[in-house]
Structures are given as structure tokens and as C-alpha cells.
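CORE FACILITY INTAKE
Project code: CF-77B
Contact: R.S. (postdoc)
Sample description: multi-component assembly, two entities in total
Requested service: structural model of the whole complex
Turnaround: standard
Below are the sequence entries exactly as provided by the requester. Do not edit them.
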Amino acid sequence: MTDTKQRIRQYLSETIPFEISDDEDLFERAVVDSLFAIQLVAFVEQEFSITAEPTDLDINNFCSVSAMTHFVERKQMKVGSDERHGFRDR
Amino acid sequence: MKYNRVGVVGAGTIGRGVALTLALTGHSVTLVDVTQQILDDAINLMARDLKSAALFDAAIRTMHHDEILGRISASTSFEDLAWSDFVIENVTESWPVKAPIYNLLDELCREECVIAANTSAISICQLARATKREDRVLGIHFMNPVRQKPVVEIIRAEHTSDATIERARELLKQMGKTGILVNDKPGFVSNRILMLTINEAIHVLQDGVAEAQDIDAIFVQCFSHKMGPLATADLIGLDTILHTLEVLHESYQLEKYAACALLQEMVKMGDLGRKSGKGFYNYSFGRKS
């Protein structure tokens, strides 16, 4: 299991009172509501030092452990690529 | 006529919802409340609400959030409402709090400016009488959450003119909403009926007739309501429910509006529903349990 996935699972295990599988849709099962969704966005931003742009705020990026893991890894890859090309200082 | 500059008084839950909906539909909003701290918190909460809305709404996702929030200017000075085309007042449901605001708005706002009271139970006539523009005062009862609820109650007070009703309908149309016109009696239609239902549901719980989830399940499963009365009470806030019942009780002097002892006790204990994390249900995990 990747470190990213581990950290997301850890957070969910502390905030949701039962186990969920990696691909289980948190919102489809009505496990959480929209306020918790925004809590998830804030967690992901802080924990992985990334910024969710308005266009990233798609519930499909935050609906499961796997979705959040892919989202974080994609953002980190983009930040790494931008840094190599010197975009961050512009 | 297109209404561009809209004043919003009161930065509580409904005031924030009204301000954000106006900004999302292209209006310049002046949001007024009494302290800078309340306004700073309101701006942060509106930014959060916008993010939350974007999660579930692709159209909002592609908008420029800074631009939307930039349309809202927050101020502690009522003078900043002077050039508004329309003012929507959303302050605490209390006559001593609301009355001086109507004096002030009447004094400061342009003559043609319409003042809408967003109240759930106080008589619009009473508020209009605190101004010298009774024909340009009406009630607009927005529902919670404001952005997602497309229909409102429009309340015509004794002296509200037809032109004022039309202007309110026009502004609502610009906000993507429509209204149902009703007459002015405390609680109007929605709260006069809803508050009694909720109060009675709390009595039923207090009397041990059924558990909270079963009371709600009867409304959801038997009547196909989206939510039961107790979950609705948690969403509105139990302090607001108690306050509204008190206003109705005082207005009609009828015992049927007397708040149930369990409701009074829960408010005293700080169990206010979703906003405090506990009401008839627990919300500590971001979900109802």
C-alpha cells in the first residue's frame, strides 16, 4: 500500500466509525454529508501540501480512498513537473 | 429593471446564503453586520460553502471563485447600503433587534429602494410601520440552504404595493428563484404549520411514543417526505425553532404554540442540532447517526 493511501485510510479510520473498502463510494452509501466532503478537501490539502483548484473540486476526486489517492498523486506529479520547469516562481 | 446593487443585512446562516446566491448570479452585494469578526467569519464560511457547492455542481466548479466572492463587500457601516436597489434584512428573529434597523434603513436608503424582511414569524406590517415607506416593504422568506431552494414565500403586508411585489419577483428571477405570494400573519404558511408539527413531534418523543428515527421514518416512508420533523428541526437549529415558537405564542396568545419542555431543555443544554453536532441525532462524524 502506498504511503498516500495509508495516510488517507488512517484519517478516515479516525473520523468514520466503521471500516470502508478502498473503492467504496462514501457518498453513495450516504456515509457522510456535504460538510464532511469539504472537511476531506481540507484534510487532503493540508496533509499533502497541495492546493485543490476550483476545477479539482469534483466529488469524484474525493468519493473514496482510491479516488483521493489518485488525485493526490496526480497533483504531486503536476507540482513536481511544474517545479522542474520553473513554473512555481512565475 | 435589472437590480445590480443589493444590500444584505445580517451575516448569519441565511444572510450568508442570500449574499452568496446573489453574488453567484452576478449581483454586487453589500453585506452588513455589527462586528468585523462576524464579517470575517462570514467571508470564510462563504468561501467554504462555494467550494462545497463546486464539489457537487460542475457549473460552479468552472467559475472563478475569487471573482464571485469579490462581488461581496462586507461592512460594519449601514451607510454603505445607501445606494442599494434592494435590501434584504436577515437579522435575529427579535423585534427589539429588528425595529431600529428598519428606522435606520428607511433613513439611509434611496427612496425607491425596496426593503425585504427575511423573517420566519414576525409580522411584516409591524416592521413596515417602523419606516415611512410601508408600500415598499415586504417579506421574503428564503428557505435553508438558500442556494439550493428554488422557491420562497413572498409576504404581502397591508400596505405593500403591487409594484413592490413585482420588483421582488424580478429580483428573485435574477437569483434563479420564484415565490409563492401569501398574506401577512405571523409565521405565514410555512412556519405556522411546520413549527406546530415539529413541536408535536418533540412531544411524541418526550412522551415515549416512539424513538426519534421512527418518528422521522413515518414521515419519510409513509408520507414520502424528504426528511422527518426531527431531522428538519436539527437542520434548522433547535434555538431557532424555540425562538420561532415563542414569537408565534406571543403573537397569537394560543397555548398550542407553547414550546415543549424537552425542546427548552435541549436548547438550555446547547444541543442545537447540526450546528452544535448534537440534537435529536449526533453529527460528530459529519453524518447523521
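Facility notes:
- Chain B has two domains: 5-183, 191-276.
- Chain B has twelve helices and eight strands.
Invoice: internal transfer
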